[in-house]
Each structure stands twice: as C-alpha cells, then as structure tokens.
Amino acid sequence: MERPRTMIKKGMRRQIVLHYILVVFLALLLVEVIFLLAIRTYYYDSVYSKIKNHISVSESFFQKNMIPSDNSIYLLQEVLERFSLSKTELEILSLNGDIITSSTGFQPDRTITTSDVPEAVGGSVGRWVGRQAGTNESVMAVSKMLQIHGQDKYVLRYITSLEEINNDLLNLTLLSTAIAAAVMAVVVGFSFGLANSIVKPLNNITAVSAQMAKGRFNVRIKGDYKFEIGDLASTLNYMAQEIVRSNQIKDDFISSISHELRTPLTSIKGWSETLVSGGYDPEETKLGVSIISKESERLIGLVEEILDFSKLQQNQMKLSIGVVDVKVLLQETILNVWAKAEKKRIHLLLECEDAIFVKGDANRLKQVFLNLVDNAVKFSHEDSSIELSAKRLSATETAIMVRDSGIGISEAHISRVKDRFFQVDALNGGTGLGLAISQQLVELHNGTLDMVSELGKGTEVTVILPLTEPQPEVITEEVTQVTATFPELDDWEA
C-alpha cells in the first residue's frame, strides 16, 4: 500500500513555511484575543458607566425633590419611578439581599446572593456579570445603597440583559476571525513564495556543486541572486574558476618540470654512456664529469625546491631561529650570484645601513634573497645593474629591497606572479615555485613581501621584517669570518 504523501516534503522549504505561518498565526491570535477582550471590556464598561451615572443623577434629584411620607409602600413606589431605567429591571432589596419590590411587579420570595449586593452594602457601587437564575440569560447587575430620611436604607439593584451585546461581540469575533483567516491565506501564499525564492536558488547551487564535486569545473551557477545566496553563488563560481586555473597551472607545472628534469637527465645519461664506452682523453673525461656534476646539482635544486614547497604547504617547515645581520646576509647573497651576474656583465650594488638585525633562520632568509636576486639577474639586460638596499622603516621594522632595470612584469601578471607554479615566461625554465616559497618563508618570519613592476622598466621587490636586538659576540664572529674569506666585499657597497 502506498504511503500518503505530505503536502510539503521535509526540507528547508517546509521549515520556512511552517515557521513563518506559526509566527504569524501566534501574532494574529494574540492581537485578536487582545482586541476582543478590549472590545468586550469597552461594551461592558459602557453599560456599567451608563447605569452608574443614572444612579448618581437620579439619587441627587430624588434627595432634593423627595416628599416626606410615612407610607413605605408609597415611598418605594416613588423610588421605582424616580430611579427606573429603560430596558433595565430595577429591584429594591433589603440590606440582607431580600427582594422587597421590583419594576416588573413580581416579588419573588428569594434572597439575592450575588457579589454586587455586599459591595453596595459596603458603600461602593457593586457590579456582577453572570447568568440569571431561572432564565439562564447573560446579565449585568449593578447595585447601590440608597438612604432615605437618614434612617431607612435600601439597595437599588439594576439588572440589564447582555444578550444583544454578546451577539454583537460574537459577530465581531466572526468578522475578525474571517479577516485573520484571509491574512493567514495571504501569509501562506507569501511564505511559499519566500521559501521558493530561497530554496530554488539553493537547489540550483546544490545541483551545480554536485557536478563540480564530480570534476566538472566548467559548469557555472547562473542567475542573478541577491544577498547571501548571491555571495554563495559568486564564491562557488570563483572557486570553480580558481580550481580550473590551478589545474591549468598544475598541468603547466608538470609539463615544465618534466622538461626541467628531462634536460639534465638526458645530459647525465648521455655523458654517462659516453664515459662508460671509454677511449676519451682526460680533458674530455673531465668535461663530461663536470657536466654530470653540474646537471646533478641542478636536479638536486629542483627536487629541494619542490620538497620545500611541500613542507610549507603541510606546515612542516622547521626554522632554526637566531639573530641575523642583514648586511652580512646580503653580502653572502651577492657572493653566491656574482659569477652568474658577471656572465651578463650585470653590476651588483649594495647599500645597507649598519647594525640592522632581524630574528630568523639565516639559511631560509638567504634562500629568499638568493631567489629574488637570481630572478633579477635572469630577467635583467646585459650591462645593467641590480641594487640591494636595506634601511630601517621604524624602530620595529626594516625594509630590504631588490631593484632591477630589467624587462619588468605586466599588470596582467603582477597579481599572479607569486602564485604557485605560475611562470611569466616558461621558456626561461624553473618550477614557478620560487616566489611562492619566498613569500611563505617571509610570512613565517612575520614579514611581508611586496612587488612593484612596470613592463620594460624593471621590478622592485620589498621585504619587510621585524627588527630585533643584536648579539655582538655572535655577529662579530660571523662578520670576521665572511670578511676573511671574501676580502673584496667592500668593493660592492654603493
């Protein structure tokens, strides 16, 4: 047997509709109850006020115009006439609540025990609403004590029917209920529209996301959605775009690294086979071994770069923190790239303030500046110059700059040049990881790396690092050792 289907299947749409209807229903119910109670109170208070005012006016007139008489029957008849009120029964009671006479002419032998009588005897105007005994009619009784000649005391009790008022209240209740039902119908329709405006875009986003999860990153979320849903759609589209771009960069990297690995391996294999075959003079053998060694170092460099990037991505890079003299660091950097710069007749200039010290891993910071200067040499023209400078920005920061006058970087590439695997010119070789690694290393030292470049005019890279206090014993020893090994360092200072 098929299970009955619910009107709205479980999900966000159902939750929105039900919650919205519940909130509006409770609000309408509260307003309706308050409204009906206020109307009922207003009507009942109007009847009570009318009777009370009539009693006050009649009592004042009666006391002024009362004719003294010893005939109690005549006196009570006069009271009935003076205090009578249309559509209202007037009863005259004793202080004990016994009915003495009434405007209807009936004098039932009974005692009134409702709460309005004791209140009247106590000196106030009593009020009671309930069902009339015998007729079960809804009535209001208002009682007030009347004193005659300063001695005789009676209780005037007015009884008026509330059936007509209750009928009006019932009609008003039905009308307000019908209005509330119409409002609820509008709310239900509106809640469905609101739910669909949220759920339909989410269903669309979910469907597209499912396709993205299966690797179809060419699909996009279509539709001009607003607010948070629009932000979500834009974010997912941007994510897919970035994944496509990352995949393209990864594919380019694989192609590039394959080429980078194949070239030295081909040289190593070729010379190895040549040397194994024998019959070559010592000079050719020495050249072959030299090429094998050089290409092996190149392979090691590529592998180390990839390993460094992998460690950084997995937060496994360990730093050996110490106090580093920035001037010595830049001098060592220049010495490492000097031979490469000499081949292109590029002048390396150093301008560094004294006693600039940072806290960090000297080898990793040297790796950063070697990469920056090596890139500057690679993309600089022959017979040009590269400037390295370091200065204090404030009491807590120093700026280290590498400036060249090379080919520069276009605006289209400057924002992506620090992305992993990205290469401005793939023909120059490399993995496209150098700047990405440099940036992450600088960030590990609580610094920043910024690039400014103009196509055809050169590039300036600025590394900002926090300063630290020097340790004279350690720094002096390092400077002495470097100066002793390379006495010509002072020639490069601008």
UniProtKB/TrEMBL annotation:
InterPro entries: HAMP_dom, HATPase_C_sf, HATPase_dom, His_kinase_dom, HisK_dim/P_dom, HisK_dim/P_sf, Sig_transdc_His_kin-like_C. It catalyses: ATP + protein L-histidine = ADP + protein N-phospho-L-histidine. The keyword Cell membrane applies. It is found in: Cell membrane. One of its GO terms (molecular function) is kinase activity. The keyword rRNA processing does not apply. Residues 196-248 form the HAMP domain. It is a multi-pass membrane protein. Its EC number is 2.7.13.3. Pfam families: HAMP, HATPase_c, HisKA. Keywords: ATP-binding, Cell membrane, Kinase, Membrane, Nucleotide-binding, Phosphoprotein, Transferase, Transmembrane, Transmembrane helix, Two-component regulatory system. Residues 256-469 form the Histidine kinase domain. Coiled coil: none annotated. The chain crosses the membrane at residues 20-43, 172-195. PANTHER family: OSMOSENSING HISTIDINE PROTEIN KINASE SLN1, TWO-COMPONENT HISTIDINE PROTEIN KINASE. This is histidine kinase.
